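fwd from M.: "can u put these together and see what the complex looks like"

so here's what she sent:
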Amino acid sequence: MTAQGKIWTAALVVIGDEILSGRTQDANIHQIARWLQVQGIRLVEVRVVADDMGAIADAVNALRASHDYLFTTGGIGPTHDDITVDAVAQALGVAVTIHPEAREMLAAYYEARGLELTEARLRMARVPEGASLIPNRISGAPGIRHGNVFLMAGVPHITAQMLDGLTGQLEGGAPLLTETVGCWVNESEVAEILRAIEAAHEDCQIGSYPFFREGRVGANFVIRSTNAEVLQSAVDTLCEALGEEGHDFTPGGI
Amino acid sequence: MTAQGKIWTAALVVIGDEILSGRTQDANIHQIARWLQVQGIRLVEVRVVADDMGAIADAVNALRASHDYLFTTGGIGPTHDDITVDAVAQALGVAVTIHPEAREMLAAYYEARGLELTEARLRMARVPEGASLIPNRISGAPGIRHGNVFLMAGVPHITAQMLDGLTGQLEGGAPLLTETVGCWVNESEVAEILRAIEAAHEDCQIGSYPFFREGRVGANFVIRSTNAEVLQSAVDTLCEALGEEGHDFTPGGI
């Protein structure tokens, strides 16, 4: 593979008892996946782990070496259950320190609101030694970057803001292009068509996602490739084959 | 730990390029987490992996030995990208066979709809050798159980139906009980209270989940324990402490 064709990959560790207990529906996997896609970085694996030092450190160490980027969400707030910084520092084999700039950001944020920078709030300035900050205009508490590891908030709209600040800053490859063709068909009827078209197009993947809607069965076929020509050829071939068999299909998806 | 006090654990492998690409927001983690909670089984880890034989098999093998139950979602349909059965069979070191009962279920389902049991549809009767079936009244295609491994659909309402069929059938422990106390407070102001109450109550965990709503900052404190008395004591102590400091709190959560 040439340097130009390098596929950049990322993994995500979601830290959260609240996700595992079913109390909260995670929204960070989805938003980080979409954001990475636009950066030309492929999300390859996600792990959701408990608020547990060992579980977090193990997941971080298992994934940071095998991917270009590792993101975490959750556990960087001011309370006793926010242990992500400690767990990541342990995984990286570095100490935890107060980041002077983070301390200033928090002090300014609370001063502007007539509040004190208490010991609990100062917890949010703790970083694994050697880290830099990812600004967060909403709550004052920054995200944290250490090498290829990015620590983001658990609250989705704060993470959205941190991602916004990182947009265009991470090196990525050619973004994965996708096209969707929707069809009012039971996917099992066209399984062979899909298989054959994928096999005939190198650097191309076809996913089939069935649905039940308006009392009818259908499926969206999502064709993915980093190569625009290959993608278009696969889409054209698929539409032609569906048309020949008399299926009711819609380029762009249903 | 006594047998009575055994904590039953589960892990979940979500198989889906569509989740990792950000195309689809996963809903199975949430519904399986909630369902397991009711069965007295604790979901301890989730991995989202690509539609890739090696990635699926590795995740299944990493998790099935260390947990009482392992669930997978996705990849059990009729198309070429449905490779979960093959990957799990590889992980278990068994062959893939057509399950005669699954074949009958599918034949009856399609016959009732005037449709043929094509080769693609018959793919949905393939199971790792030695498996039993989990009925699915919606689409005819069953879920699959092999030992402590449960293969569920990717489409959430089909998985919901399969979970329904499994309700009460898996051995579990005492369900984790939870109570929520909501408070219009910046969580950093009460961080020390939370830490102290958790420390004073064995077999009790307190999670703090901040939110921004109606232009105000608040947090829900979720107290979890398998012991009802410990739980109640922690809730009472927390409400008392919040009241003493003059905070505006609501038992049951905000």
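replying to her w this: Chain B touches chain A through 69 residues (CB under 8 Å).
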